């Protein structure tokens, strides 16, 4: 129980500077920033109560937003990801009696994993850009930025996931 | 009553999600409507301090450009001093209200600079302790950069010129025609000038400076040069202005404090009442 808490706290304290100081300054082609903050939600243990996930993600998002002066844009997107995470995982891994306690990303194939990250990243990016531009007239820009950012985010998150899950295998 | 309690208990997680999402949306809408985020902004000790320590490392990479900029500004100032004729010494028997200083400049450093979004902000390493407050101009020798919006004891966050909510009064350098300058969120090198009257003669390459019709920017601060003009019904439709500054790459700035601002604001408030 306690080790989980410290793991989550560690990710919280590591992912924020990583996102704010490195990922937000990459600006590939001028605007692409991989959103590795997604990993906070993805790595949160499925067996745990969603209340803890929602509250910690809220804090995480607010802190990210305060760094980038973006109101509540990241918070709203991350909270939504939290809420739809379990249904999407069940749908993509096609596992109706998913054992939440034994769930591990490394138990599943590469393709479903990439699909999962792609869909989560797309939802997250879409909400971020819709809230940021806040205007229908920018729909072209919103979609273009969402697509390019989703692809790049997926690429980076897959790398992170493969690096850190392989070491955890016992 | 029990049924309602049962419903709440059953949908506890959804309700929590809903409430938190509402708070996040409220913060977002508040950012869009007030052009600054009152509650969540980077002018606090945590984000300001973290950005500050990282910037102190990164600054070494840009020392050459900064020195160049300072040398150019020095040359300009020396030329200005030499060109202006020596003033006659006048003995004043009272305080001359005409020659009172109106603006003070505080040197500061940008510790974080966003430019990839549509609403970009800067974080600057001066705050209330250096008598910096909200609604002050942020400039460098090449031109305008932003306006301060939120302040803490040691840091201030400023709305960047590359923010779709940024608006400033601007004019042609060689004629007194005024317009409004804003950014359309596309290129980080160009801003848009609107509401220029049709009788104004405008050419590509004309210099645009601040108009001084606000208590924030002094008149005549450089902005950029006209790069592209489109017409509609014989009127100016959109005028693109290429910024003199590369806002993506600024580090040292001045914050301008208008010493008459409170007086002007009070007067305008009284007029509106």
UniProtKB/TrEMBL annotation, chain A:
<feature type="transmembrane region" description="Helical">
    <location>
        <begin position="142"/>
        <end position="164"/>
    </location>
</feature>
<feature type="transmembrane region" description="Helical">
    <location>
        <begin position="114"/>
        <end position="136"/>
    </location>
</feature>
<keyword id="KW-0472">Membrane</keyword>
<feature type="transmembrane region" description="Helical">
    <location>
        <begin position="73"/>
        <end position="93"/>
    </location>
</feature>
<keyword id="KW-1133">Transmembrane helix</keyword>
<protein>
    <recommendedName>
        <fullName>Rod shape-determining protein MreD</fullName>
    </recommendedName>
</protein>
<keyword id="KW-0812">Transmembrane</keyword>
From TrEMBL, chain B:
<dbReference type="InterPro" id="IPR042175">
    <property type="entry name" value="Cell/Rod_MreC_2"/>
</dbReference>
<dbReference type="Pfam" id="PF04085">
    <property type="entry name" value="MreC"/>
</dbReference>
<keyword id="KW-1133">Transmembrane helix</keyword>
<feature type="domain" description="Rod shape-determining protein MreC beta-barrel core">
    <location>
        <begin position="110"/>
        <end position="257"/>
    </location>
</feature>
<keyword id="KW-0812">Transmembrane</keyword>
<dbReference type="InterPro" id="IPR055342">
    <property type="entry name" value="MreC_beta-barrel_core"/>
</dbReference>
<dbReference type="InterPro" id="IPR042177">
    <property type="entry name" value="Cell/Rod_1"/>
</dbReference>
<comment type="similarity">
    <text>Belongs to the MreC family.</text>
</comment>
<dbReference type="InterPro" id="IPR007221">
    <property type="entry name" value="MreC"/>
</dbReference>
<feature type="transmembrane region" description="Helical">
    <location>
        <begin position="12"/>
        <end position="31"/>
    </location>
</feature>
<protein>
    <recommendedName>
        <fullName>Cell shape-determining protein MreC</fullName>
    </recommendedName>
</protein>
<keyword id="KW-0133">Cell shape</keyword>
<keyword id="KW-0472">Membrane</keyword>
């Amino acid at each position: 129980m306690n080790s989980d808490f410290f793991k989550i706290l560690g990710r919280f304290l590591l992912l924020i500077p990583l996102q704010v100081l490195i990922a937000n300054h990459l600006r590939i082609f001028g605007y692409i920033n991989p959103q590795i903050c997604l990993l906070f939600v993805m790595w949160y243990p499925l067996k745990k109560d969603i209340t803890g996930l929602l509250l910690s993600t809220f804090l995480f998002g607010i802190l990210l937003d305060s760094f980038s002066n973006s109101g509540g844009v990241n918070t709203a997107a991350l909270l939504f990801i939290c809420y739809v995470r379990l249904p999407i995982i069940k749908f993509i891994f096609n596992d109706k009696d998913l054992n939440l306690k034994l769930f591990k990303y490394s138990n599943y194939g590469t393709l479903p994993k990439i699909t999962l990250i792609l869909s989560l990243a797309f939802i997250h990016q879409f909400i971020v850009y819709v809230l940021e531009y806040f205007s229908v007239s920018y729909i072209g820009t919103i979609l273009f930025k969402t697509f390019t950012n989703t692809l790049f985010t997926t690429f980076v998150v897959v790398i992170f996931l493969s690096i850190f899950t392989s070491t955890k295998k016992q | 009553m029990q049924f309602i309690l049962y419903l709440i208990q059953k949908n506890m997680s959804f309700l929590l999600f809903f409430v938190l999402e509402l708070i996040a949306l409220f913060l977002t809408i508040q950012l869009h409507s007030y052009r600054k985020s009152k509650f969540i902004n980077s002018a606090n000790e945590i984000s300001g301090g973290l950005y500050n320590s990282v910037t102190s490392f990164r600054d070494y990479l840009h020392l050459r450009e900064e020195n160049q900029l300072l040398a150019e500004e020095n040359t300009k100032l020396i030329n200005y001093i030499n060109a202006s004729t020596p003033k006659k010494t006048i003995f004043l028997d009272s305080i001359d209200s005409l020659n009172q200083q109106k603006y003070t400049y505080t040197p500061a450093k940008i510790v974080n600079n966003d430019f990839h979004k549509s609403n970009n902000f800067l974080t600057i390493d001066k705050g209330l302790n250096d008598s910096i407050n909200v609604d002050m101009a942020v400039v460098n020798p090449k031109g305008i950069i932003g306006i301060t919006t939120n302040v803490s004891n040691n840091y201030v966050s400023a709305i960047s010129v590359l923010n779709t909510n940024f608006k400033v009064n601007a004019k042609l350098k060689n004629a007194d025609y005024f317009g409004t300058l804003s950014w359309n969120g596309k290129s980080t090198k160009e801003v848009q000038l609107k509401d220029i009257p049709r009788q104004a003669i405008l050419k590509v390459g004309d210099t645009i400076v601040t108009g001084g019709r606000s208590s924030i920017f002094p008149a005549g601060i450089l902005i950029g040069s006209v790069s592209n003009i489109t017409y509609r019904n014989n009127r100016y439709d959109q005028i693109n202005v290429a910024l003199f500054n590369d806002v993506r790459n600024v580090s040292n700035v001045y914050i301008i404090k208008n010493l008459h601002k409170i007086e002007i604001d009070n007067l305008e408030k009284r007029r509106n009442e």
